[in-house]
Task: inverse folding
């Protein structure tokens, strides 16, 4: 089936990019999150890989926290943003938490079992879904992280909550992975949802539209969802069984604008072509998942997250805007609104403290190296967070309006300001930056196995000391990239004067 968005319109958009640059980019920034899920038989080391670029517009901050497992008293509740509440469980699991204060759908989690969660907005056709006491939005992924030992269990927990209270946003796809498998959970405003398991030997790419197509709720090993998913679509006039067509969740529930958006199709297309080794065209139907051309590594996912469509019909003229590819009519994978990129490397062959690691690039994946944050770390470097995780949760939606004034020396502002500085002369600067970035990443990836062998040997006899070793290692490189960034930012400001 050909897309509603024809090539002619795409060509016109590119031709008019100078005039439409600001308008189109600002509109697209609301929908730019991007994810890749890779099954364990499709990777070189047997890990499940989860790559994600978090995109949000505005002057925003990212805090890092390590939250411990906790015991709760009977009668405690999780108080939802819109006024509802959900009974708290007696024990919640620990997790690493990337928090963006004030944002409803931007946080990412990795819990002590390796269950890792992030999301992509996917607007739906639904405008009046049923909600109880305002429904749930922000807290859904946190509850999954606190309560699930596996990605599948996280889907089941979320599904029960959605069917009980309803989901308050238009629509979203949650990407959920653990050391054994990965799932995509697609939710619609109200009480309708569906989830599909990514095959172990395949890769799934998720921009900002639903990617689940055919649904077989009888195949519970690979699909989960609400019982009336098809019946509700028929009731709403979104699917007609008499047409003879197989039910397609994506076509039935997604807004047409999202499916045919110029900020969605090229990102999906580029990632699929890069990883599959095939050459799909703009008008082709892209698969929910596919077999990669070869087994993939975390570095392969990094290379996609930092991509700007180099070598394709969507590549920007390097003479435009000082070579800055981030503000353009066709949104890049690595875009102006990236707040952080990560690759979660989830390995069941190692203890969770060592085997589950967030490779994180703060602010802009194409200029910052991805450095490892092991789950087993004891603490976060002080410059990367604003104090206590309990206070962070309680003040998430009612903190200061001007975050810079409350944390002027926060690491994130340096990464943010450096990205802005580079963008002003990207073409001249990126060659040297890329060389340094790749050098540090190569050092980290090549040295990973040897470092982990040392940690594992210590972990077997003294887990506490091994965790300190992980903490020191993570902190060393987190502080190193911060120091380099501050130095370059200072030099750039001095040169500008």
Result:
């Amino acid at each position: 089936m050909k897309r509603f968005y024809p090539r002619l319109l795409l060509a016109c958009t590119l031709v008019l990019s100078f005039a439409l640059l600001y308008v189109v980019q600002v509109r697209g920034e609301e929908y730019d999150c991007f994810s890749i899920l890779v099954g364990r038989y499709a990777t070189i080391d047997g890990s499940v890989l989860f790559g994600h670029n978090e995109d949000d517009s505005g002057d925003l901050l990212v805090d890092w926290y390590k939250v411990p497992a906790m015991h709760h008293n009977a009668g405690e509740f999780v108080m939802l943003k819109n006024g509802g509440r959900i009974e708290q469980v007696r024990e919640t699991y620990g997790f690493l938490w990337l928090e963006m204060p004030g944002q409803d759908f931007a946080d990412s989690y990795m819990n002590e079992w390796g269950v890792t969660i992030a999301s992509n907005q996917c607007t739906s056709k639904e405008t009046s879904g049923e909600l109880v006491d305002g429904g749930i939005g922000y807290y859904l992924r946190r509850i999954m992280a606190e309560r699930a030992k596996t990605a599948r269990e996280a889907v089941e927990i979320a599904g029960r909550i959605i069917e009980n209270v309803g989901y308050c946003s238009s629509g979203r796809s949650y990407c959920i992975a653990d050391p054994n498998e990965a799932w995509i959970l697609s939710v619609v405003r109200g009480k309708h949802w569906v989830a599909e398991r990514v095959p172990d030997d395949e890769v799934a790419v998720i921009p900002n539209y639903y990617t689940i197509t055919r649904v077989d709720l009888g195949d519970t090993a690979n699909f989960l969802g609400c019982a009336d998913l098809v019946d509700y679509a028929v009731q709403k006039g979104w699917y007609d069984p008499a047409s003879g067509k197989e039910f397609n969740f994506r076509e039935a529930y997604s807004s047409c604008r999202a499916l045919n958006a110029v900020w969605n199709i090229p990102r999906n297309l580029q990632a699929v072509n890069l990883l599959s080794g095939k050459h799909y065209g703009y008008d082709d139907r892209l698969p929910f998942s596919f077999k990669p051309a070869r087994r993939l590594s975390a570095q392969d996912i990094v290379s996609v997250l930092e991509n700007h469509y180099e070598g394709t019909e969507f590549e920007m003229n390097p003479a435009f805007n000082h070579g800055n590819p981030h503000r353009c009519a066709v949104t890049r994978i690595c875009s102006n609104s990236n707040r952080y990129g990560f690759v979660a490397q989830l390995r069941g062959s190692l203890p969770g403290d060592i085997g589950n690691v967030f490779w994180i690039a703060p602010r802009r994946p194409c200029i910052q190296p991805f450095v490892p944050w092991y789950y087993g770390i004891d603490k976060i470097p002080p410059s990367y967070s604003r104090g206590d995780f309990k206070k962070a949760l309680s003040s998430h939606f009612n903190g200061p309006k001007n975050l810079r004034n409350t944390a002027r020396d926060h690491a994130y502002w340096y990464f943010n300001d450096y990205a802005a500085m580079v963008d002003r002369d990207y073409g001249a600067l990126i060659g040297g930056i890329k060389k340094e970035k790749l050098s540090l990443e190569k050092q980290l990836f090549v040295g990973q196995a040897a470092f982990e062998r040392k940690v594992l040997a210590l972990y077997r006899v003294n887990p506490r000391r091994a965790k300190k070793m992980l903490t020191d290692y993570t902190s060393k490189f987190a502080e190193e990239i911060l120091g380099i960034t501050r130095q370059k930012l200072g030099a750039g400001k001095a040169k500008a004067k």
In short: The radius of gyration is 22 Å. The CA atoms of residues 234 and 243 lie 11 Å apart. Confidence is low (pLDDT under 50) at residues 1-9, 11-29. Residues 7-496 form a domain with the Penicillin V Acylase; Chain A fold (CATH 3.60.60.10).
